[in-house]
Amino acid sequence: MLRVLVCDDEPLVRAGLAVTLAAQPGIEVVGEAADGTQAVDRARQLVPDVVVMDIRMPGLDGIAATRRLVRDFPVDGPRILILTMFHSDDYVARALVAGASGFVLKDAVPAELATAVRVVGTGEAVLSPAVTRRLIDRLARQAPAAREPAELRLVTGREREVLLQLGLGRSNPEIAAVLGISRETVKTHVSRILMKLGLRDRVHAVVFAHRHGLVAGPDGDPAARPGPPS
């Protein structure tokens, strides 16, 4: 049973989301929050599996609340599913960089919302290609960290190649085609990368790859840093 906390500053929207999700099999709504500050406090108390978070709220917005929750729960805490009105909203990219695991539109049908909650709750990401591209474009404009993190030394040469492909926004089938390996092998590499680097999901693998210079430049050219042998 996935335990969900619903956060939205509009009472009718919040109540509607709670009722919609509570009616879905395998989902339990354990609490509601009216703003980002309350969402952080309730999440600390209840430790839900998923926080469905409105992105634009007065006071502490969904981005700042996400950042605080990720700080409080670096790896094993609640997954954040962002609610937004527009799939191309730059706020979504900012929320993903802050630590959210995906987004869903406010006008999504109940089945789509429930599916998004389940996907995020199992540790995967919910993104559209357009938002992935926007996230990558945003990261490409940022200077990478000066030093390579120590945990990257745990990653093999092949895993580094897969991490680069993740940084370019490619799906598992696309990575398999580029590297000439099976989809199952790609899936295994991705799981090991997330475990070794302490990352929540593939969204944050994208963020990691850009922040540490594995993907360089606006065209996504591989950085020149050498990796360990496979």
UniProtKB/TrEMBL annotation:
It comes from the Bacteria. SUPFAM superfamilies: C-terminal effector domain of the bipartite response regulators, CheY-like. The keyword Transcription applies. Residues 148-213 form the HTH luxR-type domain. InterPro entries: CheY-like_superfamily, NreC/VraR/RcsB-like_REC, Sig_transdc_resp-reg_C-effctor, Sig_transdc_resp-reg_receiver, Tscrpt_reg_LuxR_C, WalR-like. Residues 3-121 form the Response regulatory domain. GO terms for molecular function: DNA binding. Keywords: DNA-binding, Phosphoprotein, Transcription, Transcription regulation. The modification 4-aspartylphosphate is found at D54. It holds the Pfam family GerE. Transmembrane segments: none annotated. One of its GO terms (biological process) is regulation of DNA-templated transcription. This is Two-component transcriptional response regulator, LuxR family. It comes from uncultured Mycobacteriales bacterium.
